[in-house]
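Continuing the series of single-chain predictions for the mutant panel. This is the parent chain; the variants come on the following pages.
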Amino acid sequence: MIAALFPWLIFSAVIGAGLNAGLFFIFSVCIMGALARLPAEQGIAAMQAINVVILNPWFMLAFMGTAVLALILVAGGFVYGGPARFYLIAGGLLFLGGVMLVTMIVNVPMNNALEALEPGSEEAARLWSSTTLVDWVRWNHVRTLSSIGALGCFVMAFRAA
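Parent structure:
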């Protein structure tokens, strides 16, 4: 029964990984660069607003839903095998490790640290320039590349399924 659903699960993972790849890509190549051009206080306030607004049902569906699919597809790759096995496992692990784990361990704690500060404070400006605009962006590049890699793997798995 579940094997018959696999192509649909893979297709859904393609859509989810693509949405995540697009989101992280636009942060890497546009949004963070635009925020860096603003005075620190304004950039911080804008990033704080983004971090509040992004936690909505559509984002959570795309982000957490893709993580659930990735987990299912990794397990399916081991259980059902077949020609899509490698792509299912690789895509799932790329998403779970390079997107979910990095988000939870690196980006969210940096967002929380920034959220706790007053945008006009010296401490916030220091965190903004030394951590957010450097380390947060660097790790966002990891999430971007990981979600693009997962997308490619899921496309290949769908093709092989």
